[in-house]
Protein 1
Amino acid sequence: ADSLRVHGVAIPTIVGIQNVLKHIGAQKDGKQARVLWISLREEPVVYINGRPFVLRDVEMPFSNLEYTGINRDRVEQMEARLKEDILMEAARYGNKILVTDELADGQMVDLWERVSCDSVKTPLEVYEELQLKGYLVDYERVPITDEKSPKEMDFDILVNKLSQADIRTEVIFNCQMGRGRTTTGMVIATLVYLNRIGASGIPRTNSIGRVSESGSNVTDNLPNSKEAIRRGEYTVIRSLIRVLEGGVEGKRQVDKVIDKCASMQNLREAIATYRNSILRQPDEMKREASLSFFMEYLERYYFLICFAVYIHSERAALHSSSSNHTSFADWMKARPELYSIIRRLLRSDPMRALGYASLKPSLKKIVESTDGHAHEVGLVAALRSGEVLGSQTVLKSDHCPGCQNVSLPERVEGAPNFREVPAFPVYGVANPTIDGIRSVIRRIGSSKGGRPVFWHNMREEP
């Protein structure tokens, strides 16, 4: 993220780490720039003769071993034990260890690598040695599973580490390829940085809640149109920004930061890439894999929007000396509806999240009313852009006079299904009109001597 002191890189060699630090000027005899280097690898890594090697399954050397939920201490303990195992095995083979190397064309080759106690290092040891050599670098490890969203606790750890660093500190993230996890870390760090300097707010525009100008391309706003998908306007995201206060602004901020950090991967547009792959892929196994990536990427985008709203509302979390703040994990727990949305609209029904039922929306002819304004419901709904009255929503009449139960002995106009518990001042009613509310209050007041009424609304829908 240019000019924001946030950087990303793939897993480097030891010389590569030194070159990056020299480039930034993180040396006592250089610019004296301070660096916070955050590795997002959850896989155990060791350096052998200056090059990184990762533990993999012999049958799947290109696939990461997943340790979802592992913390820094445990993964670094694994790396220390892995180093011991390498040295013990090498002692049996003339101080050599058999490794699997990868050529520039992706071909795998097995070769014997000569090792010694000094040539095998854990990542932690590498950075500690660089500190002793005068490099101004602090090293952190936040293990995150590849191709998945960080867990709520991961967000909190990153906020804690980033907020403790001086605002002028250069922040560097790495994973394996320097793509998904690294880009996600860069987005999180940029959101934190912007909030720390008070630059996170995006002015509300006059277009909020209005239908777009008649000259705009209406097909771009239809559900599942190429442009709407590129903008990340999936059903689950529309539902999120409707229910989450500040959700519209949070999505705008995340989109802005994602676009700024997109030199390797655009985290929003990558969702659409897998969506398109699902539709075109004839091979069922590859299609299932694409669907899995689609869901993980969409969930990552969902949590980034939640985090953007959180960090803007919980500024106390950005002050390292403050203990009086709500963590992101607790903030999410206090909003169970955010989990129910993603469970209902993504995890339990991925085809709906994909928009599979309406992949080819037909553009109906716009019927003009007598005043010359379009009133075709699909187009008007597509062009809506309010915080709650958003795209693909309609205002449906919520009074249902036809729901009246004919077996009930009493009828109250405008208040269907009014009834009471015999001998108790407890009543029930369907959603009433305003006149219906008045009628119910008059009915209760007249029969109970004008006592006050306590009305409970059990609706969760707006």
Note: The chain has 15 helices and eleven strands.
Protein 2
Amino acid sequence: MKILCLHGAYGSAKAFRTQLDPFVSKLEKAGDVAFKFVDGQFPVNPPEGFGDYFGPPPYYRNIDFDGVDGLARLVNTLRANTEGESYEDTLRALLKGDGAIPGEETIAKTFDRITQYLDEDAEIDYGIFFAGWPPSKVEDGKVKAVLADECEDMIDVPTCHIVGSLDPYLYGAMSLYGVCNEDNATLFDHGKGHTVPRDNTTIEELVASIRKTIADAGL
């Protein structure tokens, strides 16, 4: 199986692969899992000193700051990629036969179609989140963060949430965890900050958690 890997803001496929290397290498050893890392579509310039910690440029974002138009451009980019090599076919299928999507008019429609597609024929078997950010919803034509008690929707597929108890963004990651089905959502706390674990003991435990998530998905 292939796991699609999307980096965070101010990232790149190469840098994310390097950050996850101990975990990825360990999981790939069995030969039944492969990883695909892709660059975001928006080049960005990070704050001064960023490269000292996260490596040299180029850096990218997956969605630009102008949320509505940025989302539309993301969806159109998905459609433009080669089938099987996009962000991936999960979202392409719901857009077949449509023309370009003007973001200022269709953000709510886009979200509705994504939700409908996942409800009817879910192609996302499971999710793995390193840190994470609050989930979003469309309200009054704007994208807003949402908490579990503010939304009836839930992520039902098995998920694994890798967090650090010392992460200054922990509450955002826990907000994402809160909208996932508690019966098949695994919480893995490596006890550090906004980092990716690299020591052998933690990697072994993390791989076991990921394997459990994959097994919960019936794969």
Note: The two ends are 9 Å apart (CA to CA).
